[in-house]
Amino acid sequence: MDQTAFDYLKRILTARVYEIAEETALTPAPALSARLGNTLHLKREDTQSVFSFKLRGAYNKMAALPRAQLDQGVICASAGNHAQGVALCAAKLGCRAVVVMPTTTPPVKVDGVRAHGAEVVLHGDSFSDAYAHALALERAQGLTFVHPFDDPDVIAGQGTVAMEILRQHPGPIHAIFCAIGGGGLIAGVSAYVKALRPDIRVIGVQAADSDAMRRSIEAGERVMLPDVGLFADGTAVRQVGAETLRLARMYVDEILLVDTDQVCAAIKDVFQDTRAIVEPAGALAVAGAKAYVERAAQAGTPLRDEHLVAVTCGANMNFDRLRFVAERAEMGEQREALLAVSIPERPGSLRRFCESIGTRSVTEFAYRMRESGPAHVLAGLQIARRGEAAALVRHLAEHGYEARDLSQDELAKLHLRHLVGGQSAASRGERLFRFEFPERPGALLRFLTRMAPDWNISLFHYRNQGGDVGQVLAGLHVPAGDDAAFQSFLESGGFRYREETSNPAYRLFL
């Protein structure tokens, strides 16, 4: 018989989590609240001993197991945070723990699991790959599987987050925002909240490239994504749980999608208010709260003076990724406009163009002389508010310059701004592609060796930004007779790709 919100209410109230977890603070984010015109409270699950809420559900599940099962050992699959929770719980309960993690898991999470004495097995590129391998090991070694989200005991453990929120803030709350990966946190939180305070909206937030829950709710059944984005690795789940989907369909009010730039901006926002750095998955809820307020304002029904809660659910951030986060945060806040501007190719043109910009701060400026025709400048300009990029384009047009806003163009943001070098006659006939693959040692070499030796590379840009994804921009000349082989390379390579041959920014600069 399916359990209702009131069944989960009892489970949550009696959950065993405080033998290992802490009641985390619910703190206001003053600077961000002032910008939003509402009071945003951060539920600081990033301050748990394993820097994530995941130990709540893991301990509630494991503490309920008979001693004989614990003595046989437990196993789990996880992108990192659940893994650390299981490892710590196993150490406290005195049992063996085997943790299967994707090979793309940041080293900080792998090291954290090993530090608690668990055995780590790295397998596959996603949670789904690790999950399948863990099930095989469970059967082979007689271990007990501790699911990261699709288990009533795990869901109840995560639901204690909501129990604390309502106790810590008994006054009105307009909405609670939670990140969604497999759905354990949102399932527990929504069931508890709707049992006691059905007036509070419970809103899930997913990365736009890992939206399995949103698609599953729309389809009315679990949907398996063909692949997932890896930036928010803590929520990179191809398929949500059956029980978490059931609860989400019943109790979650809506699901918002946010992109990488919005997540990076949210990481910066949390840092400015707390001086703490959360991981991308840990910032999803904050990014969602910001998007929710902005959407209301754009619809002409602004949200004002309400109380919002965002669960900052994790802080297992790889330090090397901060370079990428800092670079993209300004884009996420739309405080930088990236423009392609055509100017006459004659002496003094650059000076006159800069005069038209005035005293506005220039964040980037790239130019390469052309043999004929107008010159093309890639300019990054600081802006103060959303929508100002469009005003800049109009301003430049009034001064006789043709300008194009590239602020939302992934090709420009990932590659072009580091690669402007002019056009080449030798590149005629090339096809341009963006490739994305899991970043791990040797990944770039493996990618290159899959190409046929007679496919000429006319352009290549790869930049290791300390993230979980390798980004390559490649111009290729493929002989006409190799079309089938090239298509097979694209479709069966295990990477995501997008052809950019017709991208206007490519035509202008490369």
Descriptive tags:
20 helices; Biosynthetic Threonine Deaminase, domain 3; single chain; alpha/beta; Alpha-Beta Plaits
Protein described:
- The chain has helices at 5-13, 30-36, 54-63, 67-72, 81-93, 107-115, 127-141, 152-168, 184-196, 212-219, 242-251, 260-274, 280-298, 322-332, 349-357, 388-398, 410-414, 443-449, 483-492, 504-509, and strands at residues 26-28, 39-43, 74-77, 97-101, 119-122, 144-145, 175-179, 201-207, 254-258, 307-311, 336-343, 362-367, 375-382, 402-405, 431-438, 456-462, 469-477, 496-499.
- With 510 residues, the chain is of the alpha/beta class.
- The strands form 4 sheets. The protein has a 6-stranded mixed β-sheet, sandwiched between helices. A 4-stranded parallel β-sheet has the order 5-4-3-6, with helices on both faces.
- Helix 9 (184-196) links the parallel strand 7 and strand 8.
- Helix 1 (5-13) crosses helix 8 (152-168).
- The protein is globular.
- The relative contact order is 0.10.
- The model has no long low-confidence stretch (mean pLDDT 87).
